[in-house]
Description:
Elements: E1 4-11, H1 13-16, E2 44-49, E3 54-62, E4 68-69, E5 78-88, E6 99-106, E7 115-123, E8 128-138, E9 143-153, E10 163-166, E11 176-177, E12 183-186, E13 195-200, E14 225-229, E15 245-250, E16 259-263, H2 274-278, H3 287-294, H4 299-311, H5 314-335, H6 345-353, E17 358-361, E18 365-370, E19 379-385, E20 395-397, H7 404-414
Parallel strand pairs: 11-16
Antiparallel strand pairs: 1-6, 2-3, 3-7, 4-5, 5-6, 5-8, 8-9, 10-12, 13-14, 13-15, 15-16, 17-18, 18-19, 19-20
Amino acid sequence: MRSSIRYLLFCSLWVIGSCTVPYELSQRNLSVLYDEKAGFTGPEYALHHLSDSGSVLYYSLQLHDFSYQKTETDPVYRARIRLKVLIRDSYESKPVEDSLIVLITDSAHFQHNYLLTDSLLLTLPTGYEKLLELVLTDMNSAQEVTHYLMAYKVYEGDQQFFLARGLDGNPLYRPYITEGEAFTLEAPSGHTGNLLVRYYHRAFPIAIPPFAVDYGESFDYREDSLFSLPLQDGKTGVLAFRRPGFYHFQADSSRKEGFTLFLHGIDFPRITTVDGTLEPLRYITTSREYQALTSAASIKLAIDSFWLENCGNINRARAQIAKYYNRVQDANRYFTSYLEGWKTDRGMIYMIFGPPTHVFRDINTENWVYGDAGYSLSLRFSFVRVDNPFTYNDFNLYRNPTYKEVWYHAVENWRR
Length: 416
């Protein structure tokens, strides 16, 4: 970031109060979170708690997302970017702290691809959960996108007290690694002993349709294998794992909390294998059709035939294939936890029905609306966050038999 200029500003609450949008985030439509067409292809954020009060917010921005302009008084093409950080108690509260504003200007990377990375020091007290509202603005074009990041700082051995970095020194910004990907892990501040690692390799079923009864099963917390990692200066050496599953790192083995990384395959979240194209078809095939696909002499040819036969012509088939598997990959990026994103309840709904028109969120729930939010007959889905020591991104769908007709109608649309 040496070639860019950054300024820090602090704004008082009366400035924030002049905003015309509802201060309660639970009343705002947050559908942009699951629709990249409405915003930038980034940014990415990661939060790392260092001490009782200090926390670091890391961010990365793809500068090619931003417009470069010159002015009458400045003949140099520059990007002008603003990042505003608002700290709230919840989605229902007003900002409870002064806002932090970062102003970034860049002229060195005009017409070049460049990943800008930097960090901010925040004051977040231990023992509380806070919500960070992160508003990123391209000041040249006035394009703006907002992301939301929960700060969990109740227990000092929880996820955000660890930090995984790639070999380039930057945070991973994601809860998963790929096969053989090298990284290091920083332990909670002050921890000097070894880290305990619990490895789990489980076969989880995909989400069931929204009208079906989900009896679920309790998770068996007995690990499949167990090992420890030595620390030097508070961090591990270079690590690289190859076995699919998830790895749960703990500073205190007497509790369930810790830091988890998921390994779902070498190219994840992209779909690059035959199995990767086969499994998501389970949502739009009958049991007999799916069994025939899995037992075919050439699964790839069988999949191609499935799409061609149902779509009627090759152009329609190509369009449907691209649309379907793009949604699989999007679901993987948005909803992945111990399950690949497409296998989760939100991933299933996203794949079959597409990005929701409206998303309303609070600390523990998400409500999706397809259609007008004020229209009683619009299609709605509600998800509740699961208390899961491995991830903050686990949500269960409230299922209802009334979804049966609309589900089969949506599935049929994929088959023609």
